């Protein structure tokens, strides 16, 4: 005969073993889901550091990914102001205090949570638009010919894309983000400022490179250590890079970028095209046509690269998920307009895309 205490102990043991088994099954299911979704085409949304640091906002966005075809997020690592969104261990970051006001209290915990949900994680690193670094270390900034620090139309300085010190600074940020667990690093503002070629400025261009060569070389140097860490590399480019014959003075040519990254993301926002582009009277009102034209040109350029024996990047465009009130105040961009852009991709045989909304509010129900 078993005593009561023995029976209670046996029951407790069985319950514990069942719970452990369930936990292991759930864990393996989550791991399997993560692996499966990472193998799929990337369909993601942008998330700012401040939103990523808000548990309530992240709960809502993860809910959006659960109920739609979306399976990836692009999270700010280093933002448009040159600020890190988390506490960094990179000495150069700590020296200038670029991580003093982190928006995300525990970025590794956030990444782990996203991975448990089967979500592909991309860390966004804004490169040469870095007013914080340019102000803290003025020797790294773009300078006017009179020696003063050059500033853009918003009064913000940029760092010099020719300076290898700037390259190393950003590569170290990217390496840290990769070590934290991001699946991919995305370089944004990997270019010279708009309109800079008409300005009286001087660069630290010891090699005598043109702008496109400088961007190409930065990406070439950046991808190697990141690939060794097992992460992919992508870069954002202007939407017109798919179609123009030059680098528009900003150093972004399709060949220079597409041959050095795993994925290239042209920002094909219809609102950003001038009236008449591609023969379309009002591009903002024709999302399908704009994306279709841009992707036709992008595919053609990748085809030329492949014919030359080069390996082009996967095409993964940024799509417009915001209303450009400054273009057409009464035209609201919602689920319908987003799906028209995605349909244009599908009709071109493309699947990957990213949705951009600076406020991280997505009217998407697919």
Automatic annotation (TrEMBL):
N-terminal signal peptide: none
Transmembrane spans: none
Domain DUF4015: start-end pairs: 44-362
Highest taxon above the source species: Bacteria
InterPro entries: DUF4015, GH
Protein's name in the database: GTP-binding protein
């Amino acid at each position: 005969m078993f005593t009561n205490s023995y029976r209670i102990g046996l029951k407790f043991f069985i319950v514990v073993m069942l719970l452990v088994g369930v936990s292991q099954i759930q864990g393996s299911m989550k791991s399997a889901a993560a692996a499966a979704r990472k193998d799929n085409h990337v369909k993601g949304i942008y998330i700012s550091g401040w939103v990523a640091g808000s548990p309530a906002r992240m709960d809502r966005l993860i809910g959006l990914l659960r109920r739609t075809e979306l399976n990836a997020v692009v999270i700010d690592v280093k933002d448009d102001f040159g600020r890190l969104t988390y506490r960094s261990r990179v000495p150069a970051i700590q020296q200038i205090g670029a991580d003093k006001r982190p928006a995300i209290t525990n970025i590794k915990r956030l990444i782990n949570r996203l991975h448990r949900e089967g979500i592909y994680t991309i860390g966004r690193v804004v490169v040469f638009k870095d007013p914080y670094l340019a102000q803290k270390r003025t020797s790294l900034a773009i300078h006017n010919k009179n020696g003063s620090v050059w500033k853009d139309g918003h009064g913000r300085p940029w760092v010099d894309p020719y300076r290898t010190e700037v390259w190393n600074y950003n590569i170290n940020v990217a390496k840290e983000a990769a070590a934290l667990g991001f699946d991919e690093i995305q370089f944004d503002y990997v270019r010279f400022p708009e309109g800079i070629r008409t300005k009286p400025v001087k660069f630290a261009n010891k090699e005598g490179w043109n702008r496109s060569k400088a961007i190409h070389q930065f990406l070439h140097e950046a991808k190697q250590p990141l690939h060794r860490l097992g992460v992919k590399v992508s870069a954002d480019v202007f939407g017109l890079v798919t179609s123009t014959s030059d680098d528009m003075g900003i150093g972004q040519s399709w060949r220079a970028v597409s041959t050095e990254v795993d994925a290239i993301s042209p920002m094909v926002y219809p609102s950003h095209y001038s009236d008449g582009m591609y023969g379309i009277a009002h591009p903002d009102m024709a999302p399908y046509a704009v994306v279709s034209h841009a992707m036709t040109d992008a595919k053609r350029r990748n085809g030329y690269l492949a014919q030359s024996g080069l390996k082009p990047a996967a095409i993964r465009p940024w799509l417009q998920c915001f209303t450009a009130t400054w273009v057409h105040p009464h035209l609201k961009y919602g689920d319908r307009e987003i799906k028209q852009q995605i349909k244009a991709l599908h009709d071109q045989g493309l699947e990957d895309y990213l949705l951009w909304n600076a406020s991280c509010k997505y009217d998407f129900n697919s």
